[in-house]
## 1
Amino acid sequence: MNPFEYRDNQLYAEQVSCAEIANAYGTPSYVYSKAAIEDRYRAFEDALQDWQARICYSVKANSSLAVLSLLARLGAGFDIVSGGELERVLRAGGDARKVVFSGVAKRADEIRRALLAGIYCFNIESLPELDRIEHIAGEMDIPANVSLRVNPDVDADTHPYISTGQKENKFGLGIDQARELYQRIADSRSLRVTGVDCHIGSQLLDLAPFRSSFEKVFELVDWLEDRGIPLRHVDLGGGLGIPYTRADLAPAPVQYARAIEPFMHGRQLELVVEPGRSIVGHAGLLLCRVEYLKSTDEGNFALVDAGMNDFMRPSLYSAWHEISAVHRESGEQVLYDVAGPVCESADVLGRQRSLCIRPGSLLAVHDAGAYGFTMASNYNSRMRPAEVLVDGDLARLIRKRESIDQLFADEIIPD
Ligand code: LLP
């Protein structure tokens, strides 16, 4: 489904005009479609229905309480990487027993809290982390369910910053080391083997790297079973990409499931997946307003009120996001670099975009539902944007725009 469509040359989010949302809540604002999030979650559910599957939505993609609460009500589990994300999940009504805890540098206090909350399992990424979890679980007398995240050493063919499954990356354990550690976990009184885990990267548009990693993971599963260490689940991580440009061909959840099928066939294992972007990415956009149009000898800039602090993907990964005028006008189209107010030349949301706009026009930066607000910062002492969730003809504010008071509420000027 496309939750954002033009009617009479006005962009709508479901049944609400984006111009109305901007007028009501100001700019920059993130706007999400509830129906689009539900639709994508259900697409995963349907695609994986042949197995006992647990969809652990990856909280880092979009961790707003309203979004988490929506997914919790749909029955989602959650993939978290910090104590903060755990608290968000719990506050949003998520079930701790459906939480997997990933991440390479879990702190002792985060481990304690997760054990007390009763999470489903820890995805362990190193020997010292295993030692720490075993020690804490022993001290607390709460056995820890653990799954080892293996690094299958495959090239995910994505941006190097978000590729995680190669030997040189900090993530996961080599398969040989994992073999040794499973034996040790099986013999531990404080640890319980629950599964095996892998995640090779994000924004994968091709299923081939997934297949290569599944091969290695399931080989390990067989090896463990042969040695009398049966697993309860296999966790295949997240990473399914979405089309950001018309040229991107992203596999649908059903195609992803077909790639898993040959490996899961005939097994009793539960399946865990950790999709983030593919659930929320397409369901959100960032609304901003043109402040000035500036022409130089080299070209034209549309200077807008959203910057790299609000939406970091274009600056950090040179990511391409479609940018369109909220009100489509029929006048002359001009090529603009759409740039924000932050004092860095990297603060460009999109280069060479053909637009018919004037100062005051509203723009929509599309496919910004994932890794948008969650990566926003206060750089340049800018307040982070508001967030709005649209449900049919209702647009609800789910996060107020940050205020000046919030900006320095926790700062201290020493006497
Ligand atoms: N599981 C683990 C262990 C992860 O590290 C990630 C993402 C996911 C699941 C979810 O991946 P997804 O389905 O969303 O691709 N900020 C970057 C993306 C970083 C992804 C980090 N890990 C971006 O804006 O492209």
## 2
Amino acid sequence: MLLSLMLFAAIPVTILEESKVPAYTLPDPLVASDGRKVDAEGWKSRRRGEVMRALETHVYGRTPDTSARQAEAVQEVREHDAAALGGKATRTQLRVWPVGRKGPFIDLLVYLPNGKGGQSPVFLGANFGGNHTAVDDPKVFLPETWVSKQWSDPARSDRASEKQRGSQSSRWQLEMLIARGYGLATFYYGDVEPDHPEGWKEGFRAALSPAGRDTVWKDGEWAGVGAWAWGLSRSLDVLSRMPAVDASRVAVIGHSRLGKASLWAGAQDGRFALVISNESGCGGAALSKRIFGETVGVISGFYKGRGFPHWFTARFATYSENEAAMPLDQHWLLATVAPRPLYVASAAEDLWADPRGEFLGAVHADPVFRLLGASGLGTEVFPEVGRAVGGSVGYHNRAGKHDVTAEDWANYLDFADRNMKAR
Ligand code: GTR
């Protein structure tokens, strides 16, 4: 009792009011390590690489280069139906072993619109509960792997069940996507790595490490967010092999912790034509130095019994209660997407993720987009709730709670219509 009171007392009060945000200074992503501000050429040839190294070192860890293992990838079509959704779509369910059959597999669910002619643009994102939850379709296979009722609590994990079918479908809006000419591809994030501190042993981090399940992770090495981002890239490999997909128009999207993964995937993999962060918050689009809502300390496991130490590389936690010492902030992550289109979205009641901090992440990344010739965000005024703003960097703060809704998707599709043109 006393101990828990002491631990509780050690956690600072969460800042949820703008007036309580401390003064902070943001490092300029365009100022290189030699202290000079770069031009567009300098960003491309040198500075962007420095920013990527900084993001690896201080936040996500380094993703191993697995390009040499591409040839080991195996995929099987488990099911294919050209008359899905009452004939409106073609559904393909694939099982993919990106590093060969000895490694784990990813079950990828793909819907492409029928009757549009030519190749389709696709939104790709990982889902929280299994493919059978993301859409309301009785033909979608149940996952055979770990699924959890309580995403981060393996003690409460469970086998997938029929009862869960379609339970997250409002977050994916499949019918809307298909009607507007876009495909949807999704996989269960637990296929790549179950979301708990020991989950990596079942996933690709162990499979790709020479020491396997005996790996002792060192500072600077990748963690959960990096693994999920890698899974998004391997899924893009699969989409690129599908003749009906326009691989030059694949948008990567993610919500919350998977929004962090979406951004990190978009940063590392230039093939993603559009990058979307839905309420990614701390360690995603939100500026850490504001210390608003969820903080580096809370998320990284600095306070015993809280947080997600397995999401980030070890260095990240050292900035707990010491955000001022961070040589970067999350606007650097957003800047790495430039000049490709980027959409950052918040929800007004989702103060934990710091809507204004997410908007400011985009504001402070904007100079990089404009330097590279993109129209960018083009405003520094936090928009009223429900209004979408921006040019090639989009932003909205939807009314309501932490979620992905039809309103969010309507904005993403409008944005994709404008910004993800056929090349
Ligand atoms: C919360 C976590 C957030 C966000 C969210 C989610 O518990 O604090 O950073 O990632 O989970 O993924 O739903």
